[in-house]
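Consider this:
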Amino acid sequence: MRKLINIKLPQVDDDENQNNLYSLVLDEDGIISSIYKSSNKESNYDEDWCGDWLSPRAIDLQINGGLGISFTDLTFNEIPKLVKFLDRLWLDGVEGICPTFVSCSIDQFQLGMKVLKETRKYKSINRCRLLGAHMEGPFLSELYSGAHELKSICKPSLSALNEMINEFENDIALMTLAPELKGSFELISRLRELNIVVSLGHSSADFDLAMKAFNNGVSMITHTFNAMKGLHHRAIGPIGAAIRRDDVFLGLIADGIHVHSDMIRLLKIIAPKQIVLVSDAISAYGLGDGLFNWDNRLITVEQGLCRLSNQTIAGSTLPLLEACKRIARWVDDPSAAIWMATISPRMVLSQKKMTAQSVLIGKNIKCLLRWKMNSCNHELSWQFAA
């Protein structure tokens, strides 16, 4: 048996964390068997973490590819590269991803899903897991298409949905759509029947339409502020509608470019329990800056930001936990930042409330992360817990 003391667990609000230090008991295999509040009676022989945080690894709900691979354009020949990419993500602190397909043809999507299904056979305890896919489209607004090609966007209908996801209904975790489009509410109903999380994104929805969508089962916003109406003092739009509730998550790309750091700080103040960090990483992830092919277009990557030739932002290459460290500095709340990257995405997928304790019990310490705040530069850092 092994005992760790004076550990912090990620919380939505760091004020809750100030006097909350925990002790963990590990069995002979390193599995966490119990978690309880630390006391003054702890033994000197226990391992003292001195207030460092313990968390699960991150979950990325929106990631389009990496190391030259794009999920939208997968082929069976790329399985070895995909396995290598999953190994890289594990080293980057990510436990699981929802491989994200931008708007594409039925053939592209179904081939990619077949490749993912085959790749799942190559699972390992030290490898990032392929969770259910995230379909970002194709039922999106042409006015807010962003980096999606217009030719791949289509109008929502049950027949179009069924044709696209046929035989893969159980392999999809999340779909982004524009609820203002005619026929979208029939899709939302069908997706909820299939237990697929529905997210509002690439949408021209206003406050009232967004609220109707949330009332009918939409439970997330995809890359909040990007490709949608923003917050305005007379028209607060879909973001304002989401903030009026406590059951809608706000996906957020925290590179400081997609959304200004001061807006992220404001969002943390007004919706602290709803933010979930996503990377929105594309195929250039892990390859540094330069020019890269993305589907049939050229992407320029500079300091982690990806742009098309017309300067449209097309995702990022910033690792998710690097974004977590940035947001910890911007909002001055490391505990909440860790929560946004590790607990929030799990709540999105499970569709139920969680605590850090409930997630950590039964986990092997070797698969977890240890976070430390540098007292000199006030920078958050992480390492493998064991």
In short: The radius of gyration is 21 Å. The CA atoms of residues 165 and 247 lie 26 Å apart. The first strand starts at residue 2 and ends at 7. The chain has a mean pLDDT of 93.
